[in-house]
Design a protein that fits this description.
Number of strands: 28
Shape: globular
Largest sheet: 9 strands, mixed
Strand order of the largest sheet: 4-3-12-11-13-14-15-16-17
CATH class of one domain: Alpha Beta
Strand content: 15-25%
Number of helices: 19
Radius of gyration: 25 Å
Structural class: alpha/beta
CATH architecture of one domain: 3-Layer(aba) Sandwich
Length: 626
């Protein structure tokens, strides 16, 4: 019996049973058992109260598999059945807005959201405030014809209230990336057809922008809500039956495949693209995370990721709104001093961070401040081994690595630390170093050959594709790009990966981060890792992003590698010599005059490498050196 609902390794004993026969194998998938008494949900088998009653169970049968000579074929068949089963029952999955109403009532007196400004709301006050704000914006602010509503707010209780009110109104939330330039933000507004943007005067004073849309300030809306309106919202929130309230709000008219949010990609390689995420995309992701992390009422997640970031939108905001845990927010992910104080004050147990953010916390957050944490999920970039080891040495547990993209709502795979498993058993691995974990329940991950597009067996490198209910509806206004990346339900991630026989995914690179030099594909990430390893041997080891590799056009070899690096104690000659000693082919070793020192490596607001900014800086430095 699996301890977290993830499909475990299939053993080769199956092949011994089949040996000498021509018997087919019929895959069977048991869905919806997790949470029943016949599962290890909450760490107990049998002796617990089921999450609801009666408890439906879906049983799916697949097509017979003939000539089976690899257990991975059978495991894959069962995983695909799971994805189909999740797709079939999406009509029975509650929309996030409906889950929000129910969870607020369950947590009526318990703190549900809080932020660094000192605002703290119980479930009852959060629902009351959301209904009051919803009534105000629907009755006299938002125009009925405007289906898409922009939001320009930092991670905060106000940002949560605004997003909740927009969803209760059945509108599509478009959280705008305020770390981008004014021109790019206006491009996103134009792409989504946004006419009105919810924001705050205080925020616009700190980040003034001239936007091509009507600005609606939360401070003004708050003053316009009368005492009588607040009383009506309270009585509705407290006493109106959930189903009646959902009908009154018009939520019963929404379809699970309707768009819930538009989240724009970071634009690291081009113009941002609007990713259309449905209500079911978000709901299925929440269901999977809730299952994997065994969430309790004593849990709280510290939300430092912005709501225009898919992890911030789904995991930091809607996961607390739709489940037992609370959400705590701070607008500046690099403000380590405040982050440490918030974790200590609210006894936060879960933290999402990029490697860059985590480095900052390690330098400034004490062991006492971080003592309540039992899971830190690292996303966006590969976690360096030294970062994991240093974090464990200081805080006593390891951060876990996960994987996802905006197009996958966003979580696709995750390592589960033992601290989040309610029950333990030998032989069941839940985390593996150097990987991003197993695919989440209800989804399936496969690697395909880059040239033939054939599915590869385990431990073979190829293009990673994901199928499941978390795959986006598509790109807004770009059907051709959608058709290119989603075929037969499979989303092409753009990442190269290997999947081992236990189902753990190892990301090995991206085709976009390769250069073709002299007819050979040269991986930028591998070179970055080797240079970082060499630099990290210096006394001033900070485990930071110290270099970035890109390429510029070259007349003789097609492309030329360029290394942007921070100040380092070793000479360029020492580094190239050690790259050669490490066994890298000569084509992979940048020439000495291709190293350029920079004060900062270009990063996006999410902490990921700004590939376009790196490319532009490299072109400028290279041309200046000619």
């Amino acid at each position: 019996m699996t301890r977290n609902g993830q499909l475990q390794k299939f053993e080769r004993g199956l092949l011994k049973i089949l040996k000498g026969t021509d018997a087919p194998v019929i895959p069977v998938f048991l869905d919806e058992l997790w949470g029943s008494i016949f599962s290890y949900d909450r760490g107990k088998f049998l002796w617990k109260k089921p999450r609801h009653w009666p408890y439906p169970v879906s049983i799916s049968f697949g097509a017979p598999l003939h000539g089976v000579n690899d257990v991975d074929v059978v495991r894959h068949g069962v995983l695909e059945l799971g994805a189909k089963s999740m797709e079939r029952r999406k009509g029975r999955r509650l929309l996030p807005a409906k889950q929000f109403i129910r969870q607020c009532r369950v947590a009526w007196k318990r703190t549900k959201v809080a932020d660094s400004a000192g605002t703290q709301l119980s479930g009852g006050r959060l629902l009351t405030g959301s209904l009051a704000l919803h009534k105000r914006i629907i009755s006299s602010v938002l125009k009925p014809e405007n289906a898409y509503v922009g939001l320009l707010l930092p991670p905060s209780v106000g940002g949560v209230l605004a997003n909740a009110a927009v969803s209760l109104a059945g509108k599509v939330a478009v959280n705008l990336n305020y770390t981008l330039s004014e021109d790019v933000v206006n491009y996103c507004i134009r792409e989504a057809g946004v006419k009105q943007v919810l924001t705050s005067r205080r925020f616009m004073e700190k980040r003034p922008m001239n936007l091509n849309a009507e600005l609606i300030y939360l401070e003004d809306l708050s003053q316009q809500i009368s005492g009588l309106a607040k009383l009506r919202a309270f009585l509705t929130a407290r006493f109106m039956p959930s189903r009646m309230l959902s009908r009154r709000l018009g939520l019963e008219l929404l379809n699970s495949d309707d768009v819930m949010s538009i989240i724009f990609t970071s634009g690291s390689t081009g113009d941002p693209k609007g990713v259309m995420l449905s209500h079911d995309n978000i709901a299925s992701n929440i269901e999977a995370v809730r299952q994997l992390l065994d969430l309790r009422t004593t849990d709280s997640v510290l939300g430092v990721l912005t709501f225009f970031h898919s992890f911030g939108y789904t995991v930091s905001m809607w996961l607390p709104l739709c489940t037992e845990l609370a959400g705590v927010y701070h607008f500046n992910p690099l403000d380590a001093a405040t982050v440490g104080k918030l974790i200590e004050k609210h006894k936060s147990t879960i933290l999402l961070a990029t490697p860059t953010f985590l480095l900052s916390y390690m330098k400034r957050c004490s062991v006492e401040q971080m003592s309540s944490l039992n899971m830190v999920m690292v996303i966006a970039e590969k976690m360096p081994d030294k970062l994991r080891d240093s974090f464990r040495e200081k805080y006593g547990f390891e951060p876990s690595e996960g994987y996802g993209t905006t197009e996958l709502s966003p979580i696709a795979a995750v390592n589960i630390p033992s601290s989040r498993l309610g029950a333990k058993i030998s032989g069941q691995t839940s985390t593996k170093h150097g990987t991003t974990g197993r695919v989440i329940p209800g989804s399936v991950a496969v690697v395909f050959d880059l040239e033939t597009n054939e599915r590869l067996r385990t431990n073979k490198e190829g293009m990673l594709k994901i199928k499941g209910p978390n795959v986006m509806l598509g790109y807004l206004n770009h059907p051709e790009k959608t058709a290119e990346l989603i075929q037969d339900g499979w989303y092409t991630t753009g990442d190269l990966a290997m999947i081992d026989d236990e189902g753990f995914i190892q990301i090995t690179g991206r085709p976009s981060r390769f250069s073709k030099i002299g007819g050979e594909m040269v991986p930028h990430i591998r070179i970055e890792q080797e240079i970082a390893r060499i630099i990290d041997e210096t006394p001033n080891d900070e485990h930071d992003i110290v270099c970035a590799v890109t390429a510029v056009p070259d007349a003789s070899k097609g492309e030329r590698l360029i290394v942007l690096h921070k100040p380092m104690q070793k000479s360029v000659r020492e580094i190239t010599d050690q790259l050669q000693q490490a066994g890298l082919p000569n084509l992979w070793i940048p020439s000495s005059n291709s190293f350029f020192e920079v004060s900062q490596i270009p990063l996006l607001g999410t902490g990921k490498l700004d590939l376009r900014g790196i490319k532009e800086m490299a072109m400028c430095r290279h041309q200046g050196s000619l």
